[in-house]
Structure formats: C-alpha cells, structure tokens
Predict the structure.
Amino acid sequence: MIFLTITSSVLIAMVTIYQFKKEARNYHQDRLIRKEDAVNEHLNFVLQTTDIPVTTENLPLIFKDKIFELSSIHNIQINIYDLKGNLLITSKGNFIVDKINNEVISPNILKIIETTSTKRFIDLRIIDGITYRSAYNYIKDNQFKPLGIISMPVAEETSYYDAQVNSFFILFAQIYLFIIILAIILAFILSSYITKTLQFISERIQKTSINRRNEKIKVENASYEIETLINSYNQMVDKLEESADKLAQSHRELAWREMAKQVAHEIKNPLTPMKLTVQSFQRKFNPEDPKVNEKIKDFCETMVQQIDTMSAVASAFSNFASMPAQQNTTLNVVKVVQLALDIFNEDFINFESTEEEIIAIFDQSQIIRIINNLVKNAIEGIPNYEPFPRISVKVKRESQSVLITVSDNGSGIPEDIKEKIFEPKFTTKTSGMGLGLAMIKNMIESYGGNIRFESVLNKGTTFYVKLPISN
C-alpha cells in the first residue's frame, strides 16, 4: 500500500514537471514566432521605403541605423547575413548573446532553410544549462527574391516556470504530507478497531471449553471478514455444545454402567459364602445332633454377618449417589477439626493451628467426615514396621480461605495410580469400595473448594484441603 502511494506520487510529480516544461517550450516557441513575424514586417517596411537600391551588398547600408532601432523596439537581437551565411550587420552592441557564434551560419542550417517549404528554421541549443532559440528566415525584395538571411537569437527565461514548479512542489508536498498523516490516523483507528475485535475473539476462543457453556460472540458493524470469523466461531460453539451434551450423556451412561458392575460385584461377594453356608448347613443338618442349637447359632451369625456386609455396600453406594443436603451453620473450623480427631486413639496424631478461631459457614458433619476419611487413610497408609509413625493435621488461614493439611510418613502413593486416587471405586486396600476420597472430593467442591495431594514413595503423603471462608 505504501509502495503504491509513493509510486503514484512520483508519477504525478513527473507528469507535472513534464507538463510545465512542455508549456514553457510552447510559450517560448510562440513568443519567438510572434517576434519573428513582427520583425519581418518591420524589415519589409524598411526595404520598401528606403532610397538605397535593395541588394544583398547594400543591406548593411540600408539597416545601418535601423537595425538598432528595430532591436530596441522588439527587444531582441537581430543578425543579418548574406545568402552564404556570412554576417553583414548585427545589433550585438545592445543584445549580446556571446555564447552563440554569430559570425557565420553553419552549412547545415543553410541547407535546411533552403530545402524547407517555409524557408525558415528555428535552431535550439543548450549551452551551460541555458536554452537558446534562434529563428532563421530569408529577407526578400519586392519580387520575393532572397536578399539575405535574418537571425534572431533568444535566451529562454525559465525563472517564472521554475518558480511555478517550486510552488507546485511545495503545495504538493504539503498536501501529500497531510494525506499521509490522515492515512496514518485512519489506519491507526481501523487497526485499533480490528485489533480490539480480534483480541476479543481471541480471548473468547481461549476461554472456550467443552466442560462449560460457552457464550456466542455478538459484534455490531463488523467487517465482512470479522463477521465471517464470528459466524464460524458461533457455529463452532453450537457444535461444541451439542458434542458436550452427547459426551456428558455418554459419560453418565458409562458411569452408571460401571457403577452397576461395581454394585453387582460387591453384592455377589457376600452372596457366594452365604450360598455355600446354606448348602453346607442343609447337607449336614441333623435334628438329633446334640450340638444342633450351637450349629444353628453359628449359621445365623454367619448369615447376619454377610447380610450386614451387603447392607454396608448398599449404604455406601447410596451415600455416594445421593449426597445429603448440607446443613450449613456458622462454626469454628479449628474446634471442628479437633472434634473430628477425638475419635482416634493413636498417640502419633499431632494437631496444629495458627489461630484459635477461624469462623466459617459449613456443614459440621461433612467437615468431620472429610477429616475422618483423610486421617483414617493416613493411618492405613503407614506400614506396621514403621518404628516412628507420624500424622500431622494443620489448620491455617490463607487470605479468604482456610487450608487443612493432613500429612503422614507412610509408604506414599505410587506414580502410576496418582491420577486415579479420586476416581470412584478405585482403592489400593483389600477391603472397602474405594468411594471415600471420591465422596469427600464431591463435598469439598460443593463448597467451591479444592483438594490435592503431594506424595513421595516410602516417605509419606500430604493432602491439602482448601475451603473458602465465606461461601
């Protein structure tokens, strides 16, 4: 764009200079022709009124005094030559064009004058940067017979046109500078508008996620290109929302299928020993056996134990599938954490708090369940051969949040299972259903908090629970 502007400006300047020079040439050409015609008429009048015989040899006598008068009247130098090009008389005393040799006319010019139909010729020469024009034509008698040749050299005056060119260039430069400044301002405004719109679109695209509802972009008076980009983004949002719904539905179906498999598996575990117990009791039952009452008692205890296991499985999955409604109250988090630790008898559990009171609004029972689950996992994570078991529970305020940490010096969490820790039904223990961490994670996130952990194999694990004080 800038290159085209500069190129067009240069072309305009070149055309303008050419036009000025052309006008200057035409002006000087016409001016010389007018003077030539006027001088010729005056010469003819002198020739017609003279008493001296009109011959080539008498031309110096005829114009001895008149040539200076003619030169002064017409403000031009006059040279008169014979037909061979030799100078007969000149007004050089008054009009000196010293750069041009006026003594003789070159044979070429004589030949041109003789061969042209108009019997005239204008010679153009540039000497030391100055343009000289010399008009040549015949001096004729009453019978139109050539007597001699008259020459009128003129130095072109270009100061006027030079001043016009300079004025034009000054004006052109001012206009061009104004146009450039205006173009820069307009370019800045347009680029700012386009950049602002593109930045807005870029921010929206960066925030676009399949896990959340994305807003469409609405921009008024946008260019065709920007509008096309916005329409493409809005169409992408529609397709993304459709894909997200399908994906969410697929995840729900998959989750319920996995949950159903897990429930069936957990229920089948106690059903198998119950079936074997019933079959064995039926096969070996003898009413006359003296220990029949004792065997019936053992049978009933075994069945009740398995039934309790099934009931625990059902309760666990019920609790996970449907969390109880939160009963939020204003409480002291420090005291609630201490209360949750009171049920543990292990003397290696230490509690610390940076403040005596951290007041917040939570469901006390859920906070206790969170602490109990984390401490219980910490106890189970410490191997029996550890000579100095240690569990540390800390509470402190961080800006507008409360941070609860539970640390142990247990065996740690292997790298290959760290990503699965909070998944439902995942567990590294021989008992349990792996729903504890998944449940407390749901509780914590329902308050707008988060839970994370750091673990080093054979050195220990630390869980960080961050909850907003005001929710």
Q: What stands out?
A: Residues 1-156 form a domain with the Beta-Lactamase fold (CATH 3.30.450.20). Confidence is low (pLDDT under 50) at residues 94-98, 426-434. Residues 347 and 390 are 9 Å apart (CA to CA). DSSP finds ten helices and twelve strands in the chain.
